[in-house]
Amino acid sequence: MGIKVVIVGGGSSYTPELMEGILKRHESFPVEEVVLVDIEDGKEKLDIIGNLASRMIEASGKPIKLSWTLNRREAFVGADYIATQIRVGGLKARAADERIPLSHGFIGQETNGAGGVFKALRTIPVLLDLAKDVHEICPEAWIINFTNPAGIVTEALLKHSPHQKVIGVCNIPYNMKHSIAEILEVKPQAVQIEFVGMNHFVFGQKVLVHGVNRTQEVLDRLCDDRVDYSPANIVNLGWSKTFIESTRLLPNPYHQYYFQTRDVLHKDLQAFQENGTRAEVVQSLEKSLFEIYKNPSLSEKPKELEKRGGAFYSDVACSLMDSIHNNKEDIQTVNTRNDGAIADLPDDAVIEVNCVITKDGPKPIAVGSLPPTIKGITLQMKAFEELVVRAAISGNYNDAYTSLVMNPLVADEKRSKEVLDELLDAHRAHLPQFYGGKENGKQVHAKVY
Amino acid sequence: MGIKVVIVGGGSSYTPELMEGILKRHESFPVEEVVLVDIEDGKEKLDIIGNLASRMIEASGKPIKLSWTLNRREAFVGADYIATQIRVGGLKARAADERIPLSHGFIGQETNGAGGVFKALRTIPVLLDLAKDVHEICPEAWIINFTNPAGIVTEALLKHSPHQKVIGVCNIPYNMKHSIAEILEVKPQAVQIEFVGMNHFVFGQKVLVHGVNRTQEVLDRLCDDRVDYSPANIVNLGWSKTFIESTRLLPNPYHQYYFQTRDVLHKDLQAFQENGTRAEVVQSLEKSLFEIYKNPSLSEKPKELEKRGGAFYSDVACSLMDSIHNNKEDIQTVNTRNDGAIADLPDDAVIEVNCVITKDGPKPIAVGSLPPTIKGITLQMKAFEELVVRAAISGNYNDAYTSLVMNPLVADEKRSKEVLDELLDAHRAHLPQFYGGKENGKQVHAKVY
Amino acid sequence: MGIKVVIVGGGSSYTPELMEGILKRHESFPVEEVVLVDIEDGKEKLDIIGNLASRMIEASGKPIKLSWTLNRREAFVGADYIATQIRVGGLKARAADERIPLSHGFIGQETNGAGGVFKALRTIPVLLDLAKDVHEICPEAWIINFTNPAGIVTEALLKHSPHQKVIGVCNIPYNMKHSIAEILEVKPQAVQIEFVGMNHFVFGQKVLVHGVNRTQEVLDRLCDDRVDYSPANIVNLGWSKTFIESTRLLPNPYHQYYFQTRDVLHKDLQAFQENGTRAEVVQSLEKSLFEIYKNPSLSEKPKELEKRGGAFYSDVACSLMDSIHNNKEDIQTVNTRNDGAIADLPDDAVIEVNCVITKDGPKPIAVGSLPPTIKGITLQMKAFEELVVRAAISGNYNDAYTSLVMNPLVADEKRSKEVLDELLDAHRAHLPQFYGGKENGKQVHAKVY
Amino acid sequence: MGIKVVIVGGGSSYTPELMEGILKRHESFPVEEVVLVDIEDGKEKLDIIGNLASRMIEASGKPIKLSWTLNRREAFVGADYIATQIRVGGLKARAADERIPLSHGFIGQETNGAGGVFKALRTIPVLLDLAKDVHEICPEAWIINFTNPAGIVTEALLKHSPHQKVIGVCNIPYNMKHSIAEILEVKPQAVQIEFVGMNHFVFGQKVLVHGVNRTQEVLDRLCDDRVDYSPANIVNLGWSKTFIESTRLLPNPYHQYYFQTRDVLHKDLQAFQENGTRAEVVQSLEKSLFEIYKNPSLSEKPKELEKRGGAFYSDVACSLMDSIHNNKEDIQTVNTRNDGAIADLPDDAVIEVNCVITKDGPKPIAVGSLPPTIKGITLQMKAFEELVVRAAISGNYNDAYTSLVMNPLVADEKRSKEVLDELLDAHRAHLPQFYGGKENGKQVHAKVY
């Protein structure tokens, strides 16, 4: 009995990578059926991707059945894995998440600050609904969620969905591991980084190569060489020797938003004036990607895809499904329930942590208490994430406000309200919990302001 | 057997207020002897204050013995209470704490941000040394510490001194209580505010009048009227209705640094360009105060003193000593060991909290878990304070750096170093733990940078 | 506007004491109306008590309206304080709680071990129901619960009732305070004992007289003199010098069940063979008490009442109501929500702790972490109490079993079941949650075994 | 460069098993040198074992260098793994640990109750001393400790030794896994049990076969069949269906001491009257074992060894060393620092838990909060263990007393002292921390009583 994988957001430009991952693992992870699902608005892209994926399968010679559909519930029948890579409101919504905070002098970014809050507020209801369907139709299936902010979204699902087989994934830990391997000139499989923290706020606190501690060497190299393990979408500003030596931790690329705020803001405002928001840059990137995808002679993932930030998402997701399927008990870094792994955080917090991957799900490896240097900011970020989840569920204006004002990238009691009001308005169509549904356009939960 | 009170930093312009407090409580708190202590540099001021205090006692007709001295250890013999109100480095040091951060675009303030860190780094070794003397010479005496940052300093003493009879006091909770009483048109004694947090980062979460909950009414008034319970040294910018309604908490005046950062910075930079640092303003204020103090016909606390920020410090400190002496078991808000009173913070953290005041010391009243809205930022601030205490003890450059970079008002990994280096240099004479003593000027602990 | 007090279980032999307490406090706590409530089965006793109380009021000359009734809901209208002193199943049920465990070789006691578990299982549903009525009819009223096991019952109410104005009281801390005062030859009001733990499992860890620490002296006296602060119903076996010196804590009389188990069991089995259960002794005591109460010339609490174990309950309860009414902010030891006061226990655990008593309820004074010597057993007892509350709510057979097997006085996996089955059967009429109501006698929740 | 293994307590009857384990793993774990170390008193046995081990190596044909010595420090030079299987005071001491408690009506057992406390008190100073040597001579070596009570001893080492490369092992989890595999008729390698708790107090809370949850099936079988996964030294009394169904946990064989105390005590007292203590039984068992070992034609582990309780210790220890050496990242159950893996226990507590075994040591897999049913007893046992460690270090009489009186198998404030005094006296020669060294026989720390 073969494996059925459903890709929700199947019309995404990332799907070819995921297909490639499935194809190249066919021996150990024998997928029998793939269904791509998308919404009405994404129909055109879905067709392009569907056709490309078909050609890829054909070229590979693997016996995989492929279909694409707008009917999510039908697609779920008999599914084993549901990969979710959706973007509620599309790149247009992302543009608002970036533009509005920037216009008030705050970081405008897809997964951090005010933008990240709103991406969460839009995404959580949709994925909760999806999880309800999964729980009803294919209760044994694992949801592998790539949708950002992956940590917050996974926490919302694990706290509020009856479906508990949910794992959040991100390519950042994977990229860090590969970059470190490159620096140390060893194979990535030989490297383990002990991660501590949350998605997009994770630090590496120990680097082991074949089990031998080489952390000091890596820290030295980070200082000397300004090693860049940023994804394509983040410009690395380099970390100071003092920061690295004082924390003795490996920051991740997103930490620049928190510890280089002023410089990043300056750079982003400049970029915004020159090229518009990152969303708009991506939009044009995507446009040309889809032109390439349409080419009927293309039957593999094109090189151009790597320019997008999500490189290796496919490897992360496919390795995870492979290890679950085969109860491999290998170590992968995913977003899952804390359960004490970081002693200072609540059991039901979702963290990004090394896990033993089993058929029974990921088992987090305990890392003990947070390093004192990052204890404060990590606790704050987690408390902020809890406020976002609360607001996403309640649809309460004040809850949304507190999540903004308590985010270290906003933290301005008057401007928070301005940013909040503009973002609520911009995303009105995708915030039913705040506006009480679209049927009559009448606002229910959201405050008149 | 009468009470002996020693005032360390006796030459401070605040001392007349303290004297007034002692005189007016003489019946319930019969002080027999007061000794004012100061250092060589403060000799002139000490003489002026000593003479004024003499005249105040004489005018009151109370049988109190007064003396002033530069010999701290002699003064401690037989002491019951040691009030500490010192300023290591004087207003000149304060000016650096304000000027240097401002010049890099950060809040430059005496007790918050980078300035607060350095005030702590200078003060902690001096007070630890003082506490060692107290423990040796008058081990039963209580240290009543007003020296800022009062919470951090008290935490350092309770964690690192053999002398454990130490209480930190601040006039902020007292002022908030009095302002609320005024708003509600009741007597201050009828009001209890349930405080939660740390010194200069404390919130009020419940207002009781004669035990009746009137929190909602107070919150409404805070929104409507922009009620000002700021001390004289802080300009109130007003809190938005949304902030008050969303947190449902009473902020304290110092919260503007954290939630109105941009506006405060703008205002402070302007003020700086116009009048120099607050330290310089205070310097000139003090100068005229001391002129007034010199007047041989003055035998009471002059009205002009109230313009300084510390109004009511005297009431706070004298009430506290009175209640300890008489085992009053009344409720006062002081800085003391947490011991679970705020469930989310470590037992050995110092918090600002309502306590039952007994001869056996303050007993904190438990307030349970932090409100979710301020959980994150409060945990971060406490973790930051721990980093400051660590740096003050270790004299380690990297420890000082992490305390700066993890302070939400700095949080810039490159500029933190610049600010740190300039402040270390400016305060070199008062940071023996970083520079290894003054005898040969050779730097021991501090890194060459 | 005067105060209305309702006494539920008004027909109890303790009521005259409570009446005395109300009468003697009339000046500061001006009760205007007292209603005694009881159930059909207690009608005869209620009449006797009602008449005695009437005579007591008349003799006192205080303007208090008295009535007695079987209609609880009517009695609650306009009530300010509800004192609950019920015994579900009466002394007959108590006899089973004592006899059945004893017959299997376990401690058979009203509030500890298997007997305590079943008293809780019978009482919790009745008081939850009562609290629901209170919440509906007189939502501002305080429930002052004396019903044992007072700690567990209070925890159940605070966790599962919408009515949160509930305080549990016990005379043990009061008795300990008074005994210590006697030992030290000081007034009870001068003594504060810092208590730590739960009802019937509370230790004293510090004795202050007028705020001065005299713990060592008390510990010495406890060793030397075998000071007896046991209530009338517990025979003191004396504590060894080693135990007192090693723990440096003041045990309470009920600790003998846990640390002198074998000796107590031996003594209790002997007493059982000679006089039957304690319930039966009490039954005959009560019989003669009620004979005395009937005497129409009696118009005060008779001396004979003190032979019952509950002496001073009245003082405890009336002092509490007085302090709430007058927002006295004095310190009393009651059972209330932990909220961090004992740092190792959950916030929502009910503990027995010194509190500041206000109109807004009791505010626990934080005592920090448990002393290491009693940390283990205290944590176990609290976890056991949580299991009892869970079983009382769920009516689940396995939940009841685990609460028994995890009680240190039972802890026998096979005999636990035997004891459980016999007790379930004996108390069938009073365990609707296990047997699904009485209407058709059909068992719903309880397992067939 | 080959591996050097030192076996401390090399003269133990278990050593042949360990040798067998080393020999059969030679390919993946290429040991080059084995040194057996013992003390003067064990010289004769050491010679017998040394000769047997020589013959075993010869028979195997593996190129392993073997030696035996009384000079521990010399043996440590260049060592990679130190296996510690000592018995301070020998079987004679064990006999006292068993006899003395039994004679007072308490469980007399080697690793539980009063006997376990004294085994810890004797062992901890010796192993701390050994660890100091290791840290000095071969700081990179791992100490693999089998010496009981393995959990407490490991906690003492990790808390008080500079040498942190210490892992405690026990065959109980291994045996449980193998028994479950047998019951389910699958290979042991396919089975993972999620363990929660401490050494000799560990429960299984989930059974996975190839990652598939089969816990319910196992629980059913445990009830039906009274499956016996006890080691040879413990007679299984069978667990009741109600206990298994109510806790939904797999007890380990030692849990009978806690939940079947009365029956075990009865059985043990009977066995004691018939055959003397277990120590004496073992003594005669050992005698005949050593007779067999002497046989110069024996060159393999004899079958008779399995009658001792420690079967499979070898597999546990050798698998562990193999996985460390090869950085296998497989899952094994060992005793290591908690670090949050069980959220309710302190970070620095030692627990018995599934770990990923790496060259950098064991990494515990987080299991979250304790199941509510066993939360209380587990917390108590851990707090008890902390008291034992404290007493072992302090040599303080009162500390030893509290560890006894707070053990659930003793818990008698008067008899604890009697048992304590007799055990202190019996083990005087091996309790230097209590008696201040042997040189002059003068007691230093232990109280005169």
From TrEMBL, chains A, B, C, D:
PROSITE patterns: GLYCOSYL_HYDROL_F4. Keywords: Cobalt, Glycosidase, Hydrolase, Iron, Manganese, Metal-binding, NAD, Nickel. Mn(2+) binds at residues 170, 200. InterPro entries: GlycHydrolase_4_CS (IPR019802), Glyco_hydro_4 (IPR001088), Glyco_hydro_4_C (IPR022616), Lactate_DH/Glyco_Ohase_4_C (IPR015955), NAD(P)-bd_dom_sf (IPR036291). It holds the Pfam family Glyco_hydro_4C. Residues 195-410 form the Glycosyl hydrolase family 4 C-terminal domain. Its cofactor is NAD(+). GO terms for molecular function: hydrolase activity, hydrolyzing O-glycosyl compounds; metal ion binding; oxidoreductase activity, acting on the CH-OH group of donors, NAD or NADP as acceptor. One of its GO terms (biological process) is carbohydrate metabolic process. It comes from the Bacteria. Substrate binds at residues 94, 148. The record marks 110 as: Increases basicity of active site Tyr. Gene3D superfamilies: Lactate dehydrogenase/glycoside hydrolase, family 4, C-terminal, NAD(P)-binding Rossmann-like Domain. Belongs to the glycosyl hydrolase 4 family. PANTHER family: 6-PHOSPHO-BETA-GLUCOSIDASE, 6-PHOSPHO-BETA-GLUCOSIDASE-RELATED. This is 6-phospho-beta-glucosidase. It comes from Radiobacillus deserti.
